[in-house]
Amino acid sequence: MEPVLSVIIPIYNRERYLERCVRSVAASSRQDIEIILIDDGSVDHSGALCDRLADEDKRIIVIHQQNAGVSAARNRGLEKAQGKYFAFVDSDDYIEPDMYEKMIAAMEEYDADMVCCGISKEFEVESGRVEKLSHEHIGTCFDAIHTLKLLIKPSPATGISLIPGNKMGKRDVQKENRIFFDENLFECEDAAFWCDYIVSIRNAVHLNNIFYHYVIHDNNVSGNWRIGTSKLSNLIAWDHIIHKCQEKSEQLVSVAELRYQMCLRKMIFEAYCIYGWSSTIVSLLPKLKCYRKQLYQSKELSLSRKIYYFGCGAIVKYNLGNRTAMLWKRTKEILKK
Fold first, then answer.
1. How far apart are alpha carbons 235 and 233 in whole angstroms?
2. How many CB atoms lie within 10 A of CB 329?
3. Would you say 133 and 165 are in contact if contact means Cβ atoms under 8 Å apart?
4. What residues contact residue 216 under an 8 Å CB cut-off, 6+ apart?
5. Hey, is 173 helix, strand or coil?
6. Which of 43, 153, 160, 331 could form a disulfide with 116 if both were Cys (CB 3.0 to 4.6 A apart)?
């Protein structure tokens, strides 16, 4: 019998978190699932741990491959998947036991092509601080355009989060439209993937329930602020999303352009704070003019956030120094609403 759901877990050097992650999925109240573990060339004990967990549970499938990146690992999982539905879990995160039961039930009740749920962001590096993010509508079904808007909204408190793990899709939709992760992207690849998926669907249902636990620690990819190929992937991804929005709905383009500019300013400001002035930053400064009006005129951002992003760009553009940058960074919590 084919599984109803394929859960894909890419793994690279996550032995500290892996067992908690896999066991949380295996404990799902919906048992007719397959759990696909892709060991992406780990050099710690993650590969051996995958094999041990598979020995304990026949629903677990292990694929060992040379390191090719998280996008390639997820794509390998999609190629292997047999379920009617598919979902992703990052190997340092974990889920609630009734997550998939409730999400599948919602998809079937609303005849939806996608379902999203709320998340909790758990900050290991800040003494266990937890930030809960859930959508304001409970059990609401939206069309693809509204769902895409929720995905790219600049406020995660009212959107559906860019992370891959709080969403579930239909494998038939993914296969028919040949939707895969771009293996040339090393960050923001998940946003680009789900954007491609959403523009191919009729509708999606949104659950307020917080089912997915997103764990933030020192080893998260996004924690490295040096601007290189990985960081620049963010801008490439947002360029892709802008073009997809142009195809789907003109009203979404300005929101995607706003996110591009927010991403750019955050990227260069954080790099400037940590590493100082560089030739890479100089090469990116002309891009501050891209979609500048969208940032200043946006109704999606509060005045305080507009001021903050303006300051980030100005401090870097005029090379006002690390001390000024760090002082401005400390104002973030004061300005935050």
1. 5
2. 17
3. no
4. 121, 122, 123, 124, 125
5. helix
6. 160
Give residue 30's Cα distance to chain centre.
Answer: 24
Instruction: In whole angstroms, give the CA distance from residue 219 to residue 212.
Output: 19
| Backbone Cα Rg of the chain | 20
User: What are the structure tokens assigned to 269, written together?
Assistant: 């400001």
Q: Cβ(87)–Cβ(56) under 8 Å? A: no
Pairing of strands 203-216, 85-88: unpaired
**Same domain, yes or no, for 230 and 218?**
no
How far apart, in whole angstroms, are the C-alpha atoms of residue 198 and residue 147? 7
DSSP at 277:
S
Last residue of a domain, one of 164, 194, 222: 222
Structure tokens at 331: 């104002």
Structural domain including 258 reads: 224-335
Question: Domain boundary residue among 222, 242, 257?
Answer: 222
Cα 26 to its chain centre, rounded Å, is: 22
What tokens appear for 44 in the block?
Answer: 């710690």
pLDDT tens profile 176-215:
999 999 999 999 999 999 999 999 999 999 998 999 999 9
How does strand 33-40 pair with strand 60-65? parallel
**Top-confidence range, 58-67, 148-157, 207-216, 301-310:** 58-67
- Condensed to tens digits (0 to 9), the pLDDT of residues 3-57 reads 999 999 999 999 999 999 999 999 999 999 999 999 999 999 999 999 999 999 9
Residues 26 and 68 in one domain: yes
